[in-house]
Design brief:
There is one protein chain. With 436 residues, this protein is of the alpha+beta class. It has four domains: 101 residues, no CATH class; 90 residues, 2-Layer Sandwich (Fructose-1,6-Bisphosphatase, Chain A, domain 1); 58 residues, no CATH class; 103 residues, Dihydrodipicolinate Reductase, domain 2, CATH 3.30.360. Helix content is 41%, strand content 17%. Helix 2 runs antiparallel to helix 7, helix 7 packs antiparallel against helix 8 and helix 11 runs parallel beside helix 13. The protein is globular, with a radius of gyration of 26 Å.
Length: 436
């Protein structure tokens, strides 16, 4: 075989960078991805009793943090931090609640640490699917149980209130003390109910009381609510907590300026939340018992990109979940929230809703729905309605929160009501028979 080619020169070939090779970030590179921001709260208008109450609530939240370390890593916080060999590693460990990088697919960043266990701290690290399925314990799929391994190698369940009994008793005690100091009677009752919930894993009464009654200057989320840690079967709820103090000064500024205000987290004209709410409402009105429901959302705009970071997603999950569960007079296992960022979808949003329930004779019913919309214009009409509603308030010199239009147009309004009621409130508001 004979071939012809041009003579090769002797110049060295320039190396071509392989863009497919992952470059492992240094610990400092990882730290540089974050920015420290100091949040401040003006407590000058709060009494000394309220400040003491807030201190107790902060202490309770810190105790919840300790439980989360167990659930995330399977070890106490101090034992996990001891793995760090430098101060930089320790700092990054604190950010990530463990030695795995949460924004890099849980890649270990401390030498000698292996992959994050798929079941985090909810299961034995060597958990396998079929032995789990073969377990005879009915509560193995409960959101509030830990799977343990006995000395003989068998698996058994342990309820949260027993697994974390020491910490939960401390937290409940702090909530009870805070309730005694709280000047807001409804929030005080909520704290007492929540303390009981933490000690028996029954959150129904405290959740319902919060949705239906609490309108206080404080917001407290404390208990199992985060499902991101369990990657084994995605059912175990991790403890989380945060305490928000509403800015009374800003509220007064609106009132003093004679300005109306509406919010929070807008409902699209025909979006996932309004569709999900009405499907649940339909089942309830027709006597169907809804046993579980979930909503998965895909999109390609910057809203979905921002929410690939779980910390940015928490409040979104809360507002979307509350918009649905507030309609149901019993505890409803619910999972709602943006599920993935798909760049080529661009401004398109795709939503999948599944609802399972029981009708007459306990016969099962399953409802599946798909909604596909262009995301940004889907809110435009609602925003125009809001502008008109606020203009009415300005003309009538109404100041402060606009309850009616907030209930109609937002997922997390001051007062949650069924959509039909909210619509009637807005009609009455426009007609002038309802002040706000």
């Amino acid at each position: 075989m004979i071939s012809c080619s041009t003579p090769q020169d002797n110049r060295p070939v320039e190396p071509v960078e392989d863009t497919n090779v992952a470059h492992k970030l240094s610990i400092q590179d990882r730290l540089n991805q974050y920015v420290n921001i100091t949040l401040t709260t003006d407590l000058s208008s709060f009494s000394s009793q309220e400040k003491e109450m807030l201190k107790l609530l902060i202490d309770a939240c810190n105790e919840i943090d300790e439980i989360f370390w167990y659930q995330s890593t399977g070890k106490p916080k101090d034992s996990t931090l001891a793995l760090a060999k430098t101060e930089a590693e320790k700092k990054y460990c604190l950010i990530n609640y463990g030695p795995w990088d949460r924004i890099a697919d849980n890649e270990p960043f401390i030498e000698g640490v292996g992959k994050k266990p798929i079941g985090a701290g909810f299961y034995p690290h060597d958990i396998k699917y079929f032995p789990f399925i073969d377990m005879k314990f009915e509560d193995k799929l409960s959101m509030y149980t830990v799977i343990m391994r006995a000395e003989d190698g068998s698996l058994y369940t342990k309820p949260y209130h027993k697994a974390y009994e020491k910490q939960l008793k401390k937290i409940a005690e702090k909530l009870e003390k805070a309730a005694a100091l709280c000047p807001d009677k409804t929030f005080s009752k909520y704290l007492k109910l929540r303390a009981k919930s933490l000690l028996n894993d029954d959150y129904y009464s405290s959740d319902i009381f919060w949705v239906e009654h609490v309108q206080s200057p404080y917001d407290l989320v404390i208990g199992p609510s985060d499902f991101e840690e369990d990657r084994f079967i995605n059912t175990k709820a991790a403890y989380s907590s945060y305490l928000l103090v509403k800015d009374k000064e800003w509220s007064k500024k609106f009132e003093n300026a004679g300005l109306p205000v509406a919010g929070d987290d807008i409902k699209s004209q025909v979006g996932a939340t309004i569709l999900h709410r009405n499907l649940v409402r339909l089942c309830l009105d027709r006597g169907v018992i809804v046993d579980e429901t979930y909503q998965l959302n895909l999109g390609g705009d910057t809203d979905f990109l921002n929410m690939t970071v779980e910390e940015r997603l928490k409040t979104k999950r809360i507002s979307k979940t509350e918009a649905v569960t507030s309609l149901v007079p019993y505890e409803l296992p619910t999972r709602i929230g943006p599920s993935d960022y798909v760049p080529f979808l661009q401004n398109k949003k795709i939503c999948y809703i599944t609802l399972k329930g029981r009708k007459f004779g306990d016969r099962p019913i399953t409802l599946n729905a798909k909604l596909e919309v262009e995301d940004s214009p889907n809110s435009a009409g609602v925003v125009i309605d809001l502008i008109r509603a606020v203009k009415i308030a300005l003309d009538r010199k109404i100041k402060g929160a606009l309850i009616s239009v907030s209930a109609y147009a937002f997922k997390h309004p001051p007062i949650q009501v069924p959509d039909s009621t909210a619509k009637q409130w807005v009609e009455d508001y426009i007609a002038g028979t309802r002040e706000r």
